[in-house]
Design brief:
The chain has about 350 residues and is of the alpha/beta class. About 30% of the residues lie in helices and about 20% in strands. The N and C termini lie far apart (about 40 Å).
Length: about 350
């Protein structure tokens, strides 16, 4: 929808990655093959006669070379939505030189603005240390002076608006998105048709399903002044916690998603959590080890927010994996044990 609507509005879209045409994750059916003559058919190039071109490329197996080229392309063609998609987010470190020397610092060094989008499949699902982490912490460590946008979207509509916003803004900033894997199949990770309309926009912070007046299929939470814990999180772990809370029938824990991790949405967060300032305790929950993920980046922003709203329990605490040298365990049983441990701590 995001690609097609931009093409219709007169903006070309270029998507490049090692398996983007074949559709490893989000880009299912971007390219169809005729089994008789192996010819390519691209549905997004057949919307209308007046549309712009959708270019999708299965790239060579060199993150460094391909990301460097796409960064250059984004400078030359600022009105094209230029996207590089990693096969798994873990493999982006093969292009770390381009990320450090150009994408994160190019605007400051050379006043060259890039609107390049990096899609990095990210999430802890027991697939081992090479297929779990996009090294979110590295991108957040590079953030300063509003040089990057870093997101971890949990709804199709938010992803849609983030991509469209990238082109419709009157300035260009690189956008790094931790894209979903299992969430593509999660029955709760959906958006209504009206969420994609012009009256809606990208939400930097998203509320709990159970507090949404449009939802009635979740447990009824206690009144806000009786909520015991406010859990701040980002990405897939929200749905793990949501599912667990439904099973445990815990009605005194509220879950809030930070969709945009940088620039950090302090104003939006104030609006969401100030109603809980009198009695609740505040926690940051993540799947990643403590020395990875967003914890070291977001804790100071959240602490400032708690001080600003005058929270009685104004100390932000951490729930997640312990520090680790490897991003994830290679044993599925250990992974599941660690996930259960996180959930137990949240609802204890």
């Amino acid at each position: 929808l995001a690609f097609g609507s931009l093409l219709e509005e007169g903006f070309p879209v270029r998507l490049v990655g090692q398996d983007s045409g074949r559709g490893t994750f989000s880009q299912r059916h971007s390219v169809l093959r005729d089994q008789k003559d192996n010819s390519r058919y691209i549905p997004l190039n057949n919307i209308s006669k007046d549309q712009k071109r959708f270019e999708i490329v299965d790239s060579l197996l060199s993150e460094l070379a391909v990301l460097g080229f796409e960064y250059g392309y984004s400078l030359v063609e600022p009105d094209t939505l230029t996207i590089w998609e990693a096969q798994f987010g873990d493999f982006a470190n093969g292009a770390q030189v381009v990320i450090d020397q150009f994408i994160a610092s190019g605007e400051r060094k050379w006043t060259r603005a890039s609107g390049l989008v990096m899609l990095l499949p990210h999430g802890y699902e027991g697939q081992g240390p090479e297929h779990s982490s996009s090294r979110l912490e590295r991108f957040l460590q590079l953030c300063a002076k509003e040089n990057l946008q870093v997101m971890n979207c949990t709804t199709p509509a938010n992803y849609f608006h983030a991509l469209r916003r990238q082109i419709h803004r009157d300035f260009r900033k690189p956008l790094v998105i931790m894209t979903p894997k299992s969430l593509l199949r999660n029955k709760l990770c959906v958006s209504n048709l009206e969420d994609f309309g012009k009256q809606n926009s990208f939400h930097r912070v998203l509320w709990d399903h159970a507090t949404d007046p449009k939802e009635n299929s979740f447990i009824k939470l206690k009144e806000r002044n009786k909520i015991r814990k406010v859990i701040l999180c980002s990405g897939k772990v929200y749905f793990d916690l949501l599912e667990a809370r439904e099973k445990l029938k815990k009605d005194d824990v509220v879950l809030i998603r930070i969709e945009q991790l940088y620039p950090f949405p302090v104003k939006s967060l104030v609006k969401e959590i100030k109603a809980y300032k009198n009695n609740a305790k505040f926690y940051w929950c993540q799947e990643e080890p403590k020395n990875m993920g967003a914890w070291f980046s977001v804790r100071d922003y959240i602490q400032w927010t708690l001080d600003y709203i005058g929270a009685n329990n104004n100390q932000i605490s951490y729930i997640g994996r312990d520090t680790a040298a490897s991003p994830a365990t290679g044993y599925a049983k250990r992974h599941l044990f660690q996930q259960r441990e996180i959930i137990e701590k949240v609802f204890k």
